[in-house]
Amino acid sequence: MRLAILFFLLGVILFQQSAELPGSYWLFSAALLPLAWWWRGARLPMAALGGFLWAFLHAAWILDDILPKQLEGVDVEVEGTIASLVERDSRRARFEFLPTKLNYGEQQLTAPHRLLLSWYGDPPELSVGDRWQLTVRLKRPHGFMNPGGFDYEKWLFQQRIHATGYVRTKATQTFLGSEWYSRPADRLRQHLQHQIGAYLGD
Which of 126, 141, 145, 161 has its CA 20 to 30 A from that of 95? Predict the structure, then answer.
């Protein structure tokens, strides 16, 4: 059993070495998996194949939710909830955003699962759990990686962040209320963050 788990993990690792998503024809290889029940010698190779296919399906499911290419670099309107602590510095506020609606002109489209947004200039007070209607510009996740350095694109993928972008400061942004009850732990963490920041600022 332990050896089968190791081979399953080996299949996952082999998939992760792929530079791009393999063709969907790989799904037909799932028909071979029952061999593991009938032929003892096939169990370990089939465990590796199972790991490969599991990673393939998981990646395909995530990539299917990536921002459509035609929506990159254009103004879109999103409605949703701030889903992380808000990071602030002298230039911007940055936060994760869970959109429930995405409108492009008169079209209502399927929104990516999670966005990473920056709000430059002098943004209003923002808190986890706040609902906003924002005009933003988005792009698909990508980043540069130096050998041995931080892989930003991989990190976005692991966090299931399917687009990054910024709030259009010249457009009207609408606060829709707060769902503080939905993320009490994060609200407490943000309150402590503010208290510590105020203390250190003094």
Answer: 145
